[in-house]
Amino acid sequence: MERSINKPLVLAMVAVALLLGVMLGVTTGIADRIFGGPNPKTIASASLESMRAQNRLIAFVARYVSVTTSETSRFGFATKRTLILPGDVRYELDLSKLQPNDVTWDNSSKTLQVKLPDIEIAGPDVDLSAAQEYGEGGIVSALTNSDERLDQANRARAVADLRKQAQGAVPMRLAREAARQAVQRSFAMPLTAAGFKDVKVVARFPIDGMDEPSYLDRSTPYEEAIRQAEQRRAAQGRK
């Protein structure tokens, strides 16, 4: 009778001891050392797949304003029109382009290196509701459709000017730095959470160390930019 009582009790005590041992091992890191622990390569691979699933990262958004003037003359008279046109440009990173061989782990220096694709410029998204147009009018405007033609010329030149401003060295540098920091944080956070406190994440663009900037231009064509702006303004008017 005594044996039948003690056997279940012993088994229960062993189970509790094992449970406590596992809990102690997890909290002190012993279990990680016994079973191999978290692997920085595995964590980095999981982070890579998570980032690729996001598809695109908008690293930076900037607004530019273009001021353009076009002039024409007919019948010995001249007329000109001026357009002030603001527009937003997005600086994006196509995360789906990241490949496993773009992420390398250096165990000796505890450094995770990430090779990033080039920044892509999207836009401009012109804001026609904030556009301002000025003209001198006069005989030429009254007798011809010069105002309409000058406005079209100004819009085309304004969109081109917005793109040129967006491709400047300063905004490109700011966009690359914002993208670099975002990617480094995305890889560093899960590594730090897994206990890798001294890990360093270094993200680089192909142009790092080169004199000439390199990026992909996904700018919206002039006609499409104006059409999208007109659609947005019409939608706002219906609200």
Walk me through this protein's architecture.
By secondary structure, the protein is α/β, with parallel strands linked by helices. The chain has two domains: 1-37; 38-68 and 85-134 and 160-238, no CATH class. It is 49% helix and 28% strand. The chain has seven helices and eight strands; from the N terminus they run αααββββββαααββα. The strands form two sheets. Strands 1, 2, 5, 6 and 8 form a five-stranded mixed beta sheet that branches. The chain has a three-stranded mixed beta sheet with strand order 3-4-7, with helices on one face. A hairpin with a 2-residue loop joins β1 (56-74) and β2. α3 (40-54) crosses α6 (169-193) and α5 packs across α7 (222-238). The radius of gyration is 31 Å and the shape is elongated. The model is unreliable at 1-5, 14-35 and 138-143 (pLDDT under 50).
Can you lay out the helices and strands and say which pair or pack?
Elements lengths: L1 H27 L1 H6 L4 H15 L1 E19 L2 E18 L8 E4 L4 E5 L4 E7 L5 E4 L3 H5 L2 H21 L2 H25 L6 E5 L11 E4 L2 H17 L1
Parallel strand pairs: 4-7, 5-8
Antiparallel strand pairs: 1-2, 2-5, 2-6, 3-4
Helix pairs in contact: 3-6, 5-7
